[in-house]
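Design a sequence for this backbone.
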C-alpha cells in the first residue's frame, strides 16, 4: 500500500469514527512537519516553487539560489507553523484549487500584519492540508473564496 492510500484509509477511519466530513477528519489527523513537506515537494523554497527568473542565470547561480532558499525556508519553521494555524482557524478548505498562493499570502499579511514569504505560505498551506495544484512559481489552493473575502481587510473598506 502506498503512503497516500494509507493516509486516505486513516482519514476514512477517523471520518467513520467521529462522524465528521472527510476534510474535517483530514485536518484532525497529525499534520506533516515542515521537513516532511520540503521532502515531499523538492522544488519548494522561500520564493515558491522553482527558481525566480531562471533566464540569464547560469546553472550554478540557479543551483546556489535554490539551495540558499531551501536552507532559509527550513529555518523559518515557527513562521510556517503560525501561518498554518491561522489558515486552519480562518479559511475552510474546498476541493477545487482556485486561490493563488501569492495573492492569498498578501490577504493573510493584511489580516495579521505579519510578513511571510511565498514559500513560507505555500509550506503552511500544505501542512494545513489544503488541496493544491502547481502553477509555478505559485501554487493554487482549495480555499473558500467566502472565507478569503471575510478575512481580507482590503475588501472590507479597511487599509
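Sequence:
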Amino acid at each position: 500500500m502506498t503512503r497516500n492510500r494509507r493516509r486516505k484509509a486513516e482519514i476514512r477511519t477517523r471520518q467513520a469514527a467521529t462522524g465528521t466530513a472527510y476534510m474535517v477528519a483530514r485536518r484532525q489527523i497529525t499534520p506533516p512537519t515542515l521537513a516532511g513537506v520540503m521532502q515531499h515537494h523538492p522544488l519548494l523554497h522561500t520564493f515558491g516553487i522553482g527558481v525566480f527568473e531562471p533566464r540569464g542565470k547560469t546553472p550554478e547561480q540557479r543551483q546556489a539560489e535554490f539551495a540558499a532558499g531551501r536552507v532559509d525556508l527550513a529555518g523559518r519553521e515557527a513562521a510556517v507553523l503560525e501561518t498554518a494555524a491561522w489558515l486552519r482557524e480562518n479559511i475552510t478548505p474546498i476541493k477545487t484549487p482556485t486561490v493563488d498562493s501569492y495573492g492569498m499570502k498578501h490577504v493573510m499579511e493584511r489580516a495579521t500584519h505579519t510578513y511571510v514569504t511565498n514559500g513560507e505560505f505555500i509550506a503552511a498551506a500544505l501542512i494545513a492540508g489544503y488541496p493544491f495544484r502547481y502553477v509555478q512559481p505559485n501554487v493554487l489552493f482549495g480555499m473558500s473564496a467566502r472565507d478569503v473575502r471575510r478575512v481580507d481587510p482590503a475588501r472590507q473598506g479597511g487599509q
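The longest helix spans residues 3-18.
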